[in-house]
Design goal:
The chain has ten helices and eight strands. It is mainly alpha-helical. Strands 1-4 form a two-stranded antiparallel sheet. Helix 1 packs across helix 2 and helix 1 crosses helix 3. The longest helix has 32 residues. It is globular.
């Protein structure tokens, strides 16, 4: 598990060095600037052994009959949904698991961390959020995996101020962690063939296109009073022109999950996990930053992450609500 967790940071950091280096140097840079090669091998080998055992087990099932203790995990899901005409071997399945792990852990852990920072910076939201979690809305959330509009809005506003993908970092922003800049972009794509957009914009083969994500999220035409943190912005119908919205929405103005055609299919599960984690913390602990004025973010090129040395003090509540 240690190698699985550390590999995420290793891959992201190494990828930035690879992007600025000549292509032929990529294999050496990837190995030199991170320990990912070693951690990946350890992780891969452990996964492959487990998957080989699982494939052997599946091969022994009679007419596909599943016993009561039949495995129900990501490994089994991939085995059962893999192409039947060209079955994947253990190595291919291991790589799929590693890719899923990377996407799931990276996004959820960073979103939770930024939201915790913002809870500490804006304690006025703590009691309204706790009231929501102590009421019938939480029971409905447990039953349906949907709801908790106040918490959903707070998560979305935190993500608006702290998008997971951007290309430049200029320092701490006022009251929060970052400062907006027009050069911060996401969704970088290279044209594989000439293409003309509906407005007449033409890109040649090899040209790059991107979206100015942070600028869009701080655009006053899209988000009234954009530099002010409003945790309930997306649940208060009088703030946003389009009215209430959800963190899982995919629109031209909210592209945190990609565009509509290639939007992240796991966004619902990711937001569910973030809500469960924050709900547990809110109903069991008071939180505060040990050093409120200390830097809370580290960044180089597109790599943006909460600083590992940021300290949050969690104090158990005398009465547990949930």
């Amino acid at each position: 598990m240690d190698t699985a967790h550390s590999n995420i940071d290793h891959v992201i950091q190494a990828s930035e060095w690879i992007r600025v280096a000549p292509r032929f140097m990529a294999p050496w840079i990837g190995s030199f600037f991170s320990s990912s090669k070693k951690s990946q091998k350890s992780w891969f080998d452990a996964l492959e052994r487990t998957i080989e055992q699982r494939l052997e087990y599946c091969g022994g099932l009679v007419d596909g009959h599943k016993p009561k203790d039949h495995p129900n995990d990501a490994i089994q899901w991939i085995i059962e949904t893999a192409p039947k005409d060209d079955p994947w071997d253990a190595a291919r399945i291991a790589r799929e698991i590693m890719a899923l792990w990377f996407g799931a852990i990276h996004g959820v852990s960073m979103t939770v961390t930024w939201a915790l920072f913002d809870l500490c910076l804006h304690p006025e939201y703590v009691e309204p959020l706790r009231d929501e979690l102590r009421g019938p809305a939480y029971d409905k959330f447990v039953e349906t995996a949907d709801g908790l509009p106040l918490l959903d809005s707070f998560i979305k506003e935190s993500a608006r101020f702290n998008p997971l993908d951007c290309s430049k970092f200029l320092g701490l922003r006022i009251e929060h962690h970052l400062k907006a800049d027009n050069s911060e972009v996401t969704s970088r794509r290279v044209a594989l063939e000439p293409f003309t957009y509906s407005d007449g914009t033409h890109v040649r083969k090899g040209d790059w296109t991107c979206m100015p994500l942070r600028s869009m999220l701080r655009d006053k035409k899209l988000f009234p009073n954009p530099d002010s943190f409003n945790g309930f912005r997306f649940v208060d119908g009088s703030v946003q022109p389009e009215g209430p919205s959800k963190a899982t929405d995919v629109t031209y103005k909210w592209s945190m999950w990609g565009n509509k055609r290639l939007a992240c299919p796991a966004r619902f599960h990711a937001v569910l996990m973030v809500k469960l984690i924050l709900a547990h913390i809110l109903t069991n602990y008071d939180s505060e930053l040990a050093y409120p004025d200390a830097p809370r973010a580290t960044n180089w090129r597109t790599y943006l992450s909460p600083r590992e040395d940021t300290e949050i003090i969690l104090k158990p509540l005398s009465t547990v609500a949930i």
